[in-house]
Amino acid sequence: MLTAEDVVVQFDGLTAIGNVSLSMGRHEVFGLIGPNGAGKTTLVNCLTGFQVPSSGRILLGGEETAGWKSERFRKAGIGRTFQAGRLFREMTVVENVEVTGVGLGLTRRQARAQAMDLLEWVGIAGKAETVAGTLPYTDERRVGMARALMLGPAFVLLDEPAAGMSDAECDDLMHLVAAIPRIFTCGVLLIEHNMRVVMGVCDRIHVLDGGRTIAEGTPQEIQRNETVIAAYLGGEA
Ligand SMILES: Nc1ncnc2c1ncn2[C@@H]1O[C@H](COP(=O)(O)OP(=O)(O)OP(=O)(O)O)[C@@H](O)[C@H]1O
């Protein structure tokens, strides 16, 4: 399990996260939604060691992670993607995925084979030799996913993977995301504004507003929740 317990994050007096608790397993796609500034990125930063909570605890498999740097989170099996791809722009697509494997101690040949399998799986193997800096944004996102999965993570945090995607691309993405827990035994924490994607792939959804939890439940429960509709879903629900 990956767990946040009573997490609070304050920035110069502003409470970005106020007493948020959640827990997710490796068998599920767990959505984190809420309006802009709700605290989603800040919470994910806590869950991946990029932000130290002002108070509260982050637990991974029951183990307290206080004092862990982001590198330790990564080694313990927490992968993530970023809103901006953060790829090595001068390297090819396959090299971008391969370096993660080499960093983990695989040989170049093993890393390349595994990277190619993952690129195949995310549907971009045909662009393996393309220079990453020339990729369209949506392909960058796929490479980011392949790279995160290269770590063999227990949990992967996907930050707005559907942003800028067409409906058809979203459909492809939804199939991939929904399959991650089953194929990789890897829980997915999904931050996403596209409600069709969120409602279509998540097993459970946690809703933040103004740094606080306003609801948690199945997509059906969240779509019917009056507080969530008022704060966020509005006409979209
Ligand atoms: N490093 C920081 N220093 C000061 N304030 C910050 C910092 N990071 C985030 N905040 C503030 O914390 C609050 C939560 O921001 P956060 O980025 O976590 O929200 P979000 O839900 O991810 O928003 P979005 O959907 O726009 O990405 C906002 O008010 C934001 O301005």
From TrEMBL:
It holds the Pfam family ABC_tran. GO terms for cellular component: plasma membrane. SUPFAM superfamilies: P-loop containing nucleoside triphosphate hydrolases. Keywords: ATP-binding, Nucleotide-binding, Transport. SMART domains: AAA. PROSITE patterns: ABC_TRANSPORTER_2. GO terms for biological process: D-alanine transmembrane transport; L-alanine transport; L-isoleucine import across plasma membrane; L-valine import across plasma membrane. One of its GO terms (molecular function) is L-phenylalanine transmembrane transporter activity. This is Branched-chain amino acid transport system ATP-binding protein. It comes from Enhydrobacter aerosaccus.
